[in-house]
Amino acid sequence: MRIFVCIKQVPATNKVQVDEKTGVLKRAGVQSKMNPYDLYALETALRLREAHGGTVTVGTMGPPQAQAIIREAYMMGADEGYVFSDRRLGGADVLATSYTLSQAIRSVGDFDLILCGRQTTDGDTAQVGPAIAEHLGIPHAAWVSKLTVSGDGVDAEQQLQDVVETVHIPFPCLVTVEQDIYMPRLPSLKTARQVKDKEIHIQGLDSFLDTDENHYGLSGSPTQVERIFPPENDAEHEVWTGGDCAERLHDQLKKWKFI
């Protein structure tokens, strides 16, 4: 079974500044890490490989420094890794990002199963995974907390709002997983030494089947951020001490007509 896992490098802190002119995060000088939700997708892929054989390939769309998370994936046990890096891919919205990743995956090869984390911590849209599947024309399931191989596909247990639903999806397919599906393993020192020189493949737009620049980056994004800015932190506050805090709170809430 050939498995592809989409991973992403995200800021390691939530205190990231925003460029008010361009509307993008200022990533320079900010520590980065693998998107936490993607660790669960990678662990799922590794466990499926251990149970059924095959290969696990990881890929990320980002700048050259995103090689760091490919290296981390190698240390966890991934077989092959790709960074899809090209300035022409920058500034993409959800639609352009998902189309880029679908083209990137096609450029690498055919896969039985594509795994994604539920969402990323810097975007939080939870739309890219299903959108990749739509571009590829394959079935998909989201919010999956249990995944087993069954015959010609997988049985996926989905955590929907009010119910838990189990569906069978034939290969090839895409699944986005929840954080409680498996506990990600820690990279081992032995594996780290073995893969420290392992090749990381770097590919750009020219390696894709569709090389039309208008379909990628800002040009391929039908939605544009008009304005984005960090919230102002100017709320007034006061600190109360002593034994009459409850009474003072009651009087204040009454003054505000909350009670």
Labels describing this entry:
11 strands, 259 residues, 6 helices, single chain
SSE arrangement, N to C: EEEHEHEHEHEEEEHEH
Percent strand: 15-25%
Q: Largest sheet at a glance?
A: 9 strands, mixed
Looking at CATH, which topology would you report?
Rossmann fold
> How many H/I helical runs?
6
First-residue to last-residue Cα separation: 62 Å
User: Class by helix and strand content?
Assistant: alpha/beta
> Mind telling me the CATH superfamily name?
HUPs
The number of strands is 11
- Radius of gyration, CA atoms, in whole angstroms: 22 Å
CATH architecture: 3-Layer(aba) Sandwich
Low-confidence stretches: none
Number of domains: 1
The coarse silhouette is: globular
Arrangement of strands in the largest sheet: 9-8-7-10-6-1-4-5-11
- The first-level CATH class name: Alpha Beta
Mean pLDDT: 91
What share of residues is helical?
25-40%
Task: Give a quick precis of the structure.
By secondary structure, the chain is an alpha/beta fold. The protein has helices at residues 36-52, 67-76, 94-108, 128-136, 189-195, 245-255, and strands at 2-6, 9-11, 32-34, 55-61, 80-84, 113-117, 140-150, 153-159, 164-170, 173-177, 201-203.
Describe this structure in words.
This protein has 259 residues and is α/β, with parallel strands linked by helices. The protein has one domain (2-255): Rossmann fold. The chain is 27% helix and 24% strand. The chain is built from 6 helices and 11 strands. The protein has helices spanning 36-52, 67-76, 94-108, 128-136, 189-195, 245-255; strands at 2-6, 9-11, 32-34, 55-61, 80-84, 113-117, 140-150, 153-159, 164-170, 173-177, 201-203. The strands form 2 sheets. A 9-stranded mixed beta sheet has the order 9-8-7-10-6-1-4-5-11, sandwiched between helices. A two-stranded antiparallel sheet has the order 2-3. α2 crosses α5. The model has no long low-confidence stretch (mean pLDDT 91).
